[in-house]
């Protein structure tokens, strides 16, 4: 199928192909997401990572508490003072733009075939399963435990490798704090997910301007299948999260990352930390780019509720079945991207 970028670049484009049109009365319009939510982005918790790493014991304890509250109340938070160089973040954004500007035949070398292919390029999410396509092109790369990168643009590999190294270290610190916020040892999540061999998926998403944004969708309401997602954007609005049954616009502050809880952390925390529904809207003025790193357990890790958080005698039974992460990914690939439909298959108590 044609890429969204090639469609958006068509001269004098005034309407979108029918295959990209969603019904105007679908779930995207069931909750107001504009005037009633002015200022909502100010409510997203902000975590100062430098205080978690180098703060006094009191400062660190405060940040651990804030992390737990953010994961439990929102499932989303922003991280500042994270140690990833601002220039590196800008370089990565630039190189992703350069990739999407390659000729179509160059990008098609990486056209999606299987969820475990090391480099995948495509449009929408799963065209074989979808009645209408999403206004989005993507590049997905397996960057850990084995590192991959496209050969073009030539700078891509070096920049991506440096970026991944920095973000992995930041993620390690976050997971230590989140483990402690659950009352577990700081190393618990790292060991339980085999973080040294963890599967990390890099995903660059391109949402070009859309002449009929009211008819198109960037991505539908969904949760992420991983442990944590680390998101970098080009500051163009479009991300919305569901909080207390209302859609909130999330606009990151400069030089920050947006972090969200994924399905695997919801399972491991036995439901205490929820993988929150979120979606991407498109606009008719500017190209939005989001770059996510989905940090998951290793392929072979069987994920289930942490034994320390389960106790039948205190009315805290296991809420989820256990499943191998590789199997979870393959189920996702063969399904539609729709809310928490995959995670719901493994719930023991509804």
UniProtKB/TrEMBL annotation:
Domain Fe2OG dioxygenase: 194-297
Positions of transmembrane segments: none
Main location: cytoplasm
SUPFAM superfamilies tied to this protein: Clavaminate synthase-like
Any one GO molecular function term: metal ion binding
Localization per record: Cytoplasm; Nucleus
Ranges in coiled-coil conformation: none
Keywords carried by this UniProt record: Cytoplasm, Iron, Metal-binding, Nucleus, Oxidoreductase, Vitamin C
Gene Ontology CC annotations of this record: cytoplasm; nucleus
Family to which this protein belongs: Belongs to the iron/ascorbate-dependent oxidoreductase family.
PANTHER family found in the cross-reference section: OXOGLUTARATE/IRON-DEPENDENT DIOXYGENASE (PTHR47991)
Function comment: Involved in the regulation of shoot development and salicylic acid (SA) homeostasis.
Protein name as it appears in the record: Fe2OG dioxygenase domain-containing protein
Lineage summary: Eukaryota, Viridiplantae, Streptophyta, Embryophyta, Tracheophyta
